Each structure stands twice: as structure tokens, then as C-alpha cells.
């Protein structure tokens, strides 16, 4: 059964986002996404300093089943990546909401309002 923390924002493309302070948004993949992908074996993260637009492909995750792209839920500049998940991608399978992928300094944090709440995301994946 998937987990849906209420304090996160959710994208239709199965990324979660949380506002860390007034401009920094931490991003990962949802429990539903990691369960659908299966055991992750490789994660390719964007470089620090890369400028992203909303919806831009920025991460590749590979599992024993398939490879999948992840997309930026907000526009901004990558300020931090989680190297730990590159070395141990299974951490994302074990705890997807604790093992974030990257952090963006958002151009406009109001873009988070375009994402879904936990209940809306849950409804989307169960339809």
C-alpha cells in the first residue's frame, strides 16, 4: 500500500516536492512510483547549477524492470543533489520520502500550488 504524506506536494508524473524554506524545494519520487518501477539499480541526477523549467526532464531512474524519466515540478536552479542515492539507489525503494533526489532554488514557489495534495494524488493513481 502506498504512503501519502500530507505535507508534500505531488506531480502527475509521480514526483513529490516539499518547500524547505522560502525558496528551496526538495524533490523525490513517490512511494507509488518506486513500487511500480521495482528495485532501483541506477539513478542519474542533474548537475548542481543546472537551470530547469517546469516539466523539464532532469532525472533518469532505472530498475530491474525499466528505465523512467523524472521531471522538474518547479522551475529553478539545482542547488543540491543527493549523491547517496546514486551510490545506493535501493534507499529510494526502502524510504522514498526520506531519500530525496535533488533540491531546487525555485524561481517562483507559487508553482507548488499547481501540484496536487496527498488526497488528490491518491485519487489520481487509484482511478
How are the secondary structure elements laid out?
Blueprint: E1 9-10, E2 15-19, E3 24-29, H1 31-37, E4 40-44, E5 51-52, E6 57-63, E7 67-71, E8 76-81, H2 83-87, H3 90-94, E9 102-106, H4 118-125
Antiparallel strand pairs: 1-2, 2-3, 3-9, 4-6, 5-8, 6-7, 8-9
Detailed description of the structure:
The protein is of the alpha+beta class and 127 residues long. The protein has one domain: RNA polymerase II/Efflux pump adaptor protein, barrel-sandwich hybrid domain (OB fold (Dihydrolipoamide Acetyltransferase, E2P), Beta Barrel). 20% of the residues lie in helices and 34% in strands. It is built from 4 helices and 9 strands; from the N terminus they run βββαβββββααβα. It has helices at 31-37, 83-87, 90-94, 118-125, and strands at residues 9-10, 15-19, 24-29, 40-44, 51-52, 57-63, 67-71, 76-81, 102-106. The strands form 2 sheets. The chain has a 6-stranded antiparallel sheet. A hairpin with a 4-residue loop joins β1 and β2 (15-19). It is globular. The two termini are 15 Å apart. The model has no long low-confidence stretch (mean pLDDT 95).
